[in-house]
Amino acid sequence: MEKLAKILVVVLILLVAAVPLLGQQITAQPETIELRARMPENGGWSQEFIYGLVNVPIKLRMTSDDVVHSFALAQSSLPSVEIFPGKFSETELVFDQPGEYTFYCTRWCGANHWRMRGTIVIEGPASSDQPTSVPPLFLQRGLDLDAPHFARVIPPNRPESARASERTNALPDGLTDGGTVWSKSPEALWKDLKADEDLDDQSVWDMVAWGLNQQGSSGWMGQGRELYTQNCLACHGESGRGDGVMVRDLPPMNHDKMGSEATRPPDFSDPAVLLGASPALLEGKIIRGGMGTGMPYWGNIFTSEQIRSLVLYLYSFQMELEERP
Amino acid sequence: MEKAASYRFDLTRYTWLRRLLTSRWPQFILRAITLAGFVLVILTGFIGSPVGSRNFAVMFVWIAWWSALKLIMLPFGGRAWCSICPIPMPGEWLQQGWLVKPGGKMFNLGLRWPRRLRNTWLQSAGFAAIGLFSALTLTTPVVTAWIFVGLIVVAVAVSVIFEQRSFCRYLCPMGGFIGLYATMAPLELRPQPGLTPVEKGAAAREWPRGCPWINNPAALKANANCGLCLECLRTESGANMALNVRSFDAELGQPGAFRLDEAFLSLGLLGSVMIYSAVFQGPWGALKNAALNAGSGAWWSFAAFFLLASFGLLPALLAGASALVRRTGNLAQPLQMVFTLFSRALLPLGLLSWIAFTVSFAFGKMAYLWPVLSDPFGWGWNLFGTASVEWQPYLLSATPVIETVLLVTGLIWSGRTILKTAEQLGVRGERRWAAAPVLLFALAGTLTMLWLLIG
């Protein structure tokens, strides 16, 4: 009787212990990579590096161990994949060029959300038509991204691109030159134009807005707004005041103590902040991050076009810009 | 003044049922199955998904078992769970070398449990500790697994050092909760009525050896310490024991003694259910965060509030009410006796409050069970085709009505018991209104629960 009981207990316990082992064997998908998403505080992505080959599909089976996350491939038009706690989402990726591709979380999953990044390393032969990359303007010009750049000249009223476009014939050619507009702060551009044009201050500011407006490609406004909302708003705030939910407890920015502690981002609603910064400078800040505010780097996440749209969108906190038809 | 005995119906008068109960195999098989479930909980807790709602350990322990215990097993079967609980099994096997039939000795010092600790204080402390970490335990599988491992380790250690099921009787954190509320269960194991002193004496000599819960079944008068292990039925004097069905009020309606530790446990459980309701059903995010972030400053504040409210404020308020009753009722009994007896009278409100809390808690989360059934580890399996069942709360519109009915029932039941207790203490006739402070205490408790659960 006792012997039978012991056998029964042992068999039952072994059966239970066998469940995970057998189950894993039966449900294993050898060609699928399981990627677990966790808040950075809990460990971030379960795999920081994923390795693959050119033109060989990578199957990802993803789940979250805590809150809702989302998987996105940087500099890609692929839609992001939502990852829910305890549920499994699958996606398949194919890369036709070798290189390192960044994947990241697009959901504000926690205070260190931006740290949820990983790298897919693809090996194999490169195709001949691989584009060559041009360094961004801030590197070409050697701009100091951390130097203060406050504008001293402030427009009397909010500059409006539409007002300037009413007199298209009178606009100087320099305003359509991308290199010039991108490398100068709005204040510097205003000063150049003011020296050449016999116009009142506000009209020149309107021309500056018009010039910036010319730098965006079709749909830049929508793209910039979407990128800002998804990636910047939580810190920079809805109105750009640097009062987003993630930074409300931080001290305001102080250039003298830059780097000593994390601070709030600058206040984009202050004209002196944005009008003293050139598009190339803002582009550099977005690409590199830092600035003593704990801002993440976005250079390997966004495409050049996306960053351009985002830069122009930032100026919309100080100017009335409009998409070109 | 003892009332006439309540109606009781001896189930063992059916020969087939007595045979079923005296056979150890059905109970052993159930315990073996629960032991396997216990192992599964530990496994899933450690190696399954850390997402509580997708892990068998959390869902089946804290939603399925914990709810079934409070909604069915405890109110209808008293210590029925204890009779099939697997926790003492490994220790008992080490202690006596048996799984099915008691007897023998393996590794056991056989010490008696310390006299000073033969009460429910340690069980109160254990239950309070679970309450302090409840938000973490109920959401984190690995914590649940560690608690189960801890229970097994402590139970084994106690079994090796002390006699019989000392762990179940004096230490198990659930044991105090179940034992106290088993007072109101309509099931009891008692000696057959009308036993002669000779029969009682013979039985008393035999039963202590046959009672793992260290009782003398011939003298059993209360459910609290009887674990329904049924071993007394299986001795030579087993025919002198009866498994009775009785009214819910059969035990509580009779005068009975209540120790100070039991009084504090009764009030501690009432306070605990209020705090559980506030944490799990309330709209206060800061309170939830405080309860969840064990070790943080906010959690320490929560812990202090939990302990002070459950084991300080409520006893103080009832002691004050009892003092008023004693004064206005001109009672000669000491305050401690008045206080403990009134805390006993509050047991129905406590039990019904737990059931009401469970209704909203369990039915709101029960839909999570179906995916876990098909995917116990949260690894993406779909064993029974239920892995994709979406969450939805059950009985959503009926829940407030059910909760109100339960709480009002608890108030009426406790109110009646308070009046009976007052009468037994000597508050009669024109002085009946002297019991009002304790009645107001019960009313305030009910209103607090109604506010917490329904708003």
Strand order across the largest sheet of chain A: 2-8-7-4-5
Beta-strand percentage range of chain A: 5-15%
Average the pLDDT over all residues of chain A and give the rounded result. 87
List low-pLDDT spans of chain B: none
Largest sheet of chain A: 5 strands, mixed
Mean pLDDT score of chain B, rounded? Answer: 91
Radius of gyration of chain B: 22 Å
Supply the helix-strand structural class of chain B: mainly alpha
The dominant shape of chain A is elongated
Radius of gyration of chain A: 26 Å
Number of strands of chain B: 3
Question: Which term fits the overall shape of chain B?
Answer: globular
What is the chains' assembly state? heterodimer
What is the succession of H and E elements of chain A? HEEEEEEEEHHHHHHHHH
Structure explained in plain terms:
The complex is a heterodimer of chains A (325) and B (455). With 325 residues, chain A is of the alpha/beta class. Chain A is 33% helix and 14% strand. Chain A is built from 10 helices and 8 strands. In chain A, the strands form 2 sheets. In chain A, strands 2-8-7-4-5 form a 5-stranded mixed β-sheet, with no helix packed on it. In chain A, helix 5 crosses helix 6 and helix 9 crosses helix 10. The mean pLDDT of chain A is 87. Chain B is globular and about 65 Å long. Classes of the chains: A alpha/beta (325), B mainly alpha (455). Chains A and B meet through helix 1 and strand 3 of A and helix 2 of B.
How is the secondary structure organized here?
The complex is a heterodimer of chains A (325) and B (455).
Chain A lengths: L1 H26 L4 E6 L11 E5 L4 E7 L4 E5 L7 E3 L5 E5 L5 E7 L11 E7 L13 H4 L20 H5 L12 H6 L2 H11 L4 H13 L6 H17 L34 H4 L4 H10 L15 H12 L10
Chain B lengths: L7 E3 L4 H8 L1 H24 L8 H22 L2 H5 L3 H9 L24 H12 L1 H4 L3 H21 L4 H6 L1 H9 L5 E5 L5 H14 L30 E6 L13 H22 L3 H8 L4 H32 L6 H11 L1 H19 L3 H6 L24 H27 L10 H18 L2
Helix pairs in contact in B: 2-3, 2-8, 3-8, 3-16, 5-8, 6-10, 6-12, 12-14, 12-15, 12-16, 12-19, 13-14, 14-15, 14-19, 15-18, 16-18, 16-19, 18-19
